[in-house]
Amino acid sequence: MTTTNHPIAISVQELVKSFDKVMAVDHLSFTVPKGTIFGLLGHNGAGKSTTIDCLLGTQAYQSGHVSILGEDPIKVRKKLFQKVGVQFQETAFQSQLKVKEICQITHSLYERPRDWQKALETFGLADKKQAFVSTLSGGEKQKLCILLAVMGNPEVIFLDELTTGLDPKARREVWRYLHLLKEQGVTIFLTSHFMDEVENLCDQILILKEGKTIARGTVQEVIEASGQKNMDEAFLYLMGEEF
Q1: Are 117 and 127 contacting, i.e. CB atoms less than 8 angstroms apart?
Q2: I need a surface site. Which of 100, 140, 156, 188 has the fewest CB within 10 A?
Q3: What pLDDT, on a 0 to 100 scale, did the predictor assign at position 3?
Q4: What is the model's pLDDT at position 155?
Q5: Would I find Transmembrane among this entry's keywords (predicted)?
């Protein structure tokens, strides 16, 4: 696997998390260098969300070691909150809030937040400032989710299926913005079911199946190791599925 001299933003070593007798994450290890985009892939139920919960300190785990920016997320959650952005799903919004109001509320939570009005312009939502969240389209709500995740000027952001529901133009707008964040040194940890998105964005990927690592490396390394032509075919092959 390709190595890098960048400092490490996220470190996971031998992580184990089970629910009763079901092993959700099975001795998972990986590192994410600062200023890179890392993709955690797998079908629903593969252990992606559980891994993220353990990383964010919202789930206790049985064994292993997790750190973000050199800190234990369970012990210093409040401190890390100022440095880590998380994309909440649109269902977490109060529908009777206006876009302006939810931006102002989120802005107030951080010590060094972004200018929320400029952020709305960047995401093409400036004309929706006075609109109620409930009136936004699915794509507009998704862009708002991502905007709020970066409101605190985070060093690390977690994005879960970030472009689900977006049309092709909006997806590419989000990709462009994520590349810009990467250029600014932000570390991006994402999950996605779209392999074209993975190919466009990710420096490193890890594929999970039933909580275990079945492939990791750059996109090109994973494709070559699978003997397939592209990421779509490689993913299906590694999952043991027909295509």
Answers
A1: no
A2: 100
A3: 44
A4: 96
A5: no
Place of tokens 């032509």: 229
Task: Give the C-alpha separation, 149 to 30, whole Å.
Answer: 23
pLDDT in the model for residue 93: 67
Q: Which of 188, 177, 181 is nearest to 36 (CA)?
A: 188
Domains of the chain: 7-83+155-166+185-243 (3.40.50.300), 89-153 (no CATH)
Give me the residues of the chain with pLDDT under 50, please. Answer: 1-4
- How many other C-beta atoms are found inside a 10 Å radius of the C-beta of residue 55? 24
Rounded CA separation 3/177 (Å): 25
- Give the CA dihedral 8, 9, 14, 20, nearest 10 degrees: 180
pLDDT (tens digit, 9 = 90+) per residue, 218-227? 999 999 999 9
User: Which pLDDT score is estimated for 167?
Assistant: 82
